[in-house]
């Protein structure tokens, strides 16, 4: 799945989350799209699993691109963003980090956060 998503890095809005495979891939995605919500997650994390359907709906229904970073596979990348717990959500607008939230936020709050940068 990651290779297909990477091929679409310069496409418009994507309808499903992109799985990030390293720092340069994350930089490519955040610079290629206007608004990117990055989910730092772990497979063993219950709140992360509960957040998955919310992120899939947001990817399908907003202009934002949803990117996912597995903190177990990419510990240095997560550390560079100061991720201390999962899930941690980082919002990028125009290639710059503009927000960072820890914990599983409700869908309406995430949608409002995204829409603040897409309008």
Automatic annotation (TrEMBL):
Q: Which domain of life is it from?
A: Archaea
Keywords (alphabetical) are: Disulfide bond, Electron transport, Plasmid, Redox-active center, Transport
Q: What InterPro entries does UniProt report for this protein, alphabetically?
A: Thioredoxin, Thioredoxin-like_sf, Thioredoxin_CS, Thioredoxin_domain
Gene Ontology CC entries for this record: cytoplasm
One annotated GO molecular function: protein-disulfide reductase activity
Asked if the Swiss-Prot or TrEMBL record annotates the protein with the keyword Electron transport, the reply is: yes
User: What SUPFAM superfamilies does the annotation carry?
Assistant: Thioredoxin-like
Where would you find the membrane-spanning parts of this chain?
none
Domain called Thioredoxin: residue spans: 3-119
Protein name, as recorded: Thioredoxin
Q: What is the lineage of its organism?
A: Archaea, Methanobacteriati, Methanobacteriota, Stenosarchaea group, Halobacteria
């Amino acid at each position: 799945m990651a290779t297909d998503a990477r091929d679409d890095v310069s496409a418009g809005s994507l309808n499903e989350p992109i799985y990030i495979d390293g720092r340069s891939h994350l930089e490519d995605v955040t610079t290629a799209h206007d608004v990117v919500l990055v989910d730092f997650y772990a497979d063993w994390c219950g709140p992360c699993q509960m957040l998955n359907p919310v992120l899939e709906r947001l990817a399908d229904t907003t202009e934002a691109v949803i990117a996912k970073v597995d903190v177990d596979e990419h510990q240095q990348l997560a550390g560079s963003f100061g991720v201390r717990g999962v899930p941690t959500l980082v919002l990028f607008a125009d290639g710059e980090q503009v927000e960072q939230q820890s914990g599983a936020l409700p869908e309406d709050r995430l949608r409002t956060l995204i829409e603040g940068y897409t309008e």
